[in-house]
């Protein structure tokens, strides 16, 4: 189904729905093409979203000092406090005005958006482990559909249905519902779809439904990161109709959309995947995917040489693909460690880490999404992952008995990559360096059963606060110190919002940690009261961060304004500013019925990367670390002990 380019996307979606309503288009055809047929256009609320606020300078300084207090001895804190007060009353005012002026000149976006893109794209460290996270999907509950070919086909078709709905404004806008029973209804959706954006936003708000920013979603597809010297660039090509598939280190490409942008029959897509999986080619001895694991300046130089060596067309096919699919030859079973290692890094030969996202499938049908982080955050990828999981499970398009003719295999192209001796040596060196890094990475996990979200709610404490408290208690048990902890929080409630940092280490959590880890513990009622105080403080920090009132992004923007205008500031030269941004524990949570786990590497050499889930009946934590700097098993052991002690307090009467 093709509309003229002059027809706005919202009008296209309305036209499709009207044609469907009047039976002027085949219902089965439309249903196959779109994962959703939302009454409310995808970007309906976008122009009405509030802008990300710039916090008051005084509030940011106060919050920054509060976060520093539990990390510093008295003398160091007094020095930092003096620096902050001097900044607040002096050069900070100048930087705040520069930031406000910058924000006023860019009212179409947020003050953090371009600065955050720039930060990511200027980073020179390799993407895998340092930046690219994973979201692992649950298995299909129908065992026979976990076959690599069947599941791969169904997930590809669901991804294309998501893409088509997004492009045609038929994907429902992301909305956070405080009371879904009242706001997530057919009636309210109908009303909001008829109102202009500003009135629709107000109407949703009155029902305590908060539309979220959708500006990152178009970058999911047909997008990639190109390495350049000093600063990479993101490109998006809107008219591509093919995907790329990696198998045994080789690249394949084939079309999945017709000339009129319709999704090809699922049986044809299955046939093409079958052809690839049955290609008798040997594993590629020189897979170019390993080059995307390199330091970015180094990769930029090598990529230029690769293109010059008669590979320009092949690279363009990879860059412009709708998305990338990696069919692996390894089995991971249901082992969280194997799953994490395979999908987070593997050996690099069957990956292209520069792509906006790659859909990964193990030989035994486990599936995950590995995504590049510069273009966007977890909110968009999580929505995509949840939608394709549910769609592929509830509406599979191919089945164990699906038949295909074999006549479409000829349209699959294995990309011939031309390599000279220099490029081959680069691949060998990249493989050696990457293997050394991956061999040093450790993955450990704990599942604490019988206790979870329900226990916390009964005690009127935040489950997330208790989880973060346990991290600190565990670290202190092992090291006797307190360190900077980072918890990610989305600011997608604002136009072009990205993320804000929650700093869970507070004076309240420090007091509790010292108390419960001491030889002379306070009484149980006193400890329970302290947990409640930790929870109250943590809830306030979450609310501030989600409302754009954290201090991390604001200080980062002020620092950037100073750098752009040649203005020095003592607060940013203070070693304690670098210290609080040295995130020994980087944490993030994923709670979704579609998701098995999430994972990412440590952000500092002697740190931990911790993905966690809080369920009604259990807690799950998966931690990554580098073996030559820290002990993952020791930390997980201390964490399990911390859970036992904290929940013993909560469950006591």
UniProtKB/TrEMBL annotation:
Gene3D superfamilies: Chloramphenicol acetyltransferase-like domain, Choline/Carnitine o-acyltransferase, domain 2. The keyword Acyltransferase applies. One of its GO terms (biological process) is fatty acid beta-oxidation. One of its GO terms (molecular function) is carnitine O-palmitoyltransferase activity. Residues 52-640 form the Choline/carnitine acyltransferase domain. InterPro entries: Carn_acyl_trans, CAT-like_dom_sf, Cho/carn_acyl_trans, Cho/carn_acyl_trans_2. Keywords: Acyltransferase, Transferase. The active site is at residue 373. It comes from the Eukaryota. This is Carn acyltransf domain containing protein. Belongs to the carnitine/choline acetyltransferase family. GO terms for cellular component: mitochondrion. PROSITE patterns: ACYLTRANSF_C_2 (PS00440).
